[in-house]
Design brief:
By secondary structure, the chain is α+β, with helices and mostly antiparallel strands. The protein has 2 domains: 13-183, tt1808, chain A (Alpha-Beta Complex), CATH 3.90.1570.20; 191-244. It has helices at 7-12, 27-43, 110-122, 186-237, and strands spanning 50-53, 58-59, 73-77, 87-88, 99-103, 127-132, 137-144, 147-150, 165-168, 173-176. The strands form 3 sheets. Strands 1-3-5-6-7-8 form a 6-stranded mixed beta sheet, sandwiched between helices. The longest helix is centred in the last third of the chain and has 52 residues, at 186-237.
Length: 245
Amino acid sequence: MVKQVTPNTAASVFYPESDGQPMADNTKQYTWIVTIKENLEILFKSRDDVFIAGDLFWFPVEGDPDIRQAPDVLVVFGRPKGHRGSYKQWSENNIPPQVVFEILSPGNTTKEMANKFSFYQRHGVEEYYIYDPEKITLKGWLRSENILKPIKEINGWVSPHLGINFQMTPETLSIYYPDGRKFLTPVENDDLREQERREKEQERLEKEQERREKEQALQELEQERQRYQELLAQLRDRGINLEDL
């Protein structure tokens, strides 16, 4: 039976913005969530129609707040950036998140992940990725013929929506921008910026040293020219003309 939602009923429905649970169960899971979310923000910073969030409640059905999930990272194409307390799909031109990431922790149960998969399949997710940083395994699904089908070869896979590349090694997952740059943690990004700053400063100092050396050489050349002119003047005073020699 389909639940009918009247305007008065819809207005009185409470949509929570938190379930009281932590964003992550451990530091490794948290680091991965932040790394993926923030690098995607960087990737799409010039596009105003891409909304990215982490651990945000997604309500796909108006009037039923019990139908919800909070993906570790979600990406929505076709919706503006901006702060939201939750993602109410009916207020977002009924556009569901197209890409979802989940980062596993020891606390995730098989039943919980099965429920998440069913939710994402039912409500229109087009790309779904699960990474287990403990077991170093990545699984992915791509929507085809209205169902999420497993991506058979995930190593080297390029996301159709995001354009990012997934590379698996025995030690970790590496994710790369379309231009080949690697997804970095905030600390790694800061280290890279500091390294670039030091390199630029070193380049500036080297150019300054080169400029000073050129100025010194020009000064010495000018001093030599002046001494030569003084010598010529002294010889002329003595009646000696170098051109007559």
